[in-house]
Automatic annotation (TrEMBL):
It comes from Actinoplanes palleronii. Residues 4-123 form the Bacterial Pleckstrin homology domain. InterPro entries: PHb, PHb_sf. Gene3D superfamilies: Bacterial Pleckstrin homology domain. This is Bacterial Pleckstrin homology domain-containing protein.
Length: 124
């Protein structure tokens, strides 16, 4: 489960969303498609056309996995921080109704503007 009291949840790099589909496919609803995929060492986040899904692989063997769904219709506000000259990382802050705030930190080479536009299309 995402810890909403923790300032940062994941430090992510972009990956091919297709490589994550087999792991989340059992949880997708009819017509739902994975649009973006981001990965840390073992954990990952996917953005679909319906929701954000954070996947936390637990334990030494990785056999236990937590799938947290955060629907776009619960987002009250979001903020994007673009990369600078020295700080190449970007950040996405999301405030969810009744849940709190999460921060996703992305390593360099993530098009945060494209991600922001996709979220805006579903939220606004």
């Amino acid at each position: 489960m995402i810890d909403f009291n923790n300032g940062s949840v994941f430090k992510l790099t972009a990956c091919d969303p297709g490589e994550l589909v087999p792991q989340v496919a059992p949880f997708l609803i009819q017509g739902e498609q994975v649009i973006f995929g981001f990965r840390s060492v073992r954990d990952f986040v996917v953005f679909t056309n319906k929701r954000l899904m954070a996947v936390n692989v637990q334990g030494l063997t990785g056999s236990k996995t937590d799938f947290t769904t955060l629907p776009y219709n619960k987002i009250q506000a979001f903020s994007v921080e673009t990369a600078g000259s020295f700080d190449r990382d970007t950040e996405l802050d999301l405030w969810f109704s009744g849940l709190g705030q999460i921060r996703l930190e992305f390593k360099r080479n993530v098009d945060i503007r494209q991600l922001s536009q996709m979220i805006a299309n579903y939220v606004l």
